[in-house]
């Protein structure tokens, strides 16, 4: 009996690790493709979309899983395509964890749409606050700029950039979470849902609002980047 339970647990653990590795790989690919989009602010602030995948992983497996994937992807990014070294690694992990781990924590307290949206909103706000602080502390070091110059960029540049980036990632998470999870469930890679979901009309309404917000955030990103 004990051996059977142990074997079952090992299979579950292996399956979970496999899923986390898959999601980490997808997050890296999404990050790489995001870097190819010629839209950035000040030449070094990129609208990286990997946080969407990390957040979905957090919704599925919890905040620690999101933190783990964030660290792994950021490490691989540092040794493959990044030119910012350990400073970039630190900023990536702080940004993604502040957003995705917060959202996942709220969602895992109560698994419903309201908790997910609340977590995403709080995650965006916390990530923005965290990055304002750390940009003030770290950017002068690796950009070799006077701290007074960076301080003058916090409100007009870093604040809107992080709010817009967070808004894009949050709305994409809302739009993609269910399709991604449903596909994984059909492939029997994750367990079927045991919670009571929101009604069909409610889901459609949330999707429409998220889509409108996504378009709005994208337009704001293009304006901030000077594209339009």
Care to give the gist of this entry?
The protein is an all-alpha fold and 228 residues long.
Describe the structure.
By secondary structure, the protein is mainly alpha-helical. It has helices spanning 2-35, 50-61, 63-80, 85-109, 113-142, 147-186, 200-224; strands spanning 40-41, 45-46. Helix 1 (2-35) crosses helix 3, helix 2 crosses helix 6 and helix 3 runs antiparallel to helix 4. It has a single domain, classed as Arp2/3 complex 21 kDa subunit ARPC3, CATH 1.10.1760.20. A hairpin with a 3-residue loop joins strand 1 (40-41) and strand 2. The chain is built from 7 helices and 2 strands; from the N terminus they run αββαααααα. It is globular and about 55 Å long. It has a two-stranded antiparallel sheet.
Read across the widest sheet, the strand sequence of neighbours is 1-2
Which architecture per CATH?
Orthogonal Bundle
**If helices are DSSP runs of H or I spanning 4 or more residues, what is the number of helices?**
7
Poorly predicted regions are: none
Count every beta strand, where a strand is a DSSP E run of 2 or more residues.
2
User: What's the overall average pLDDT, rounded?
Assistant: 89
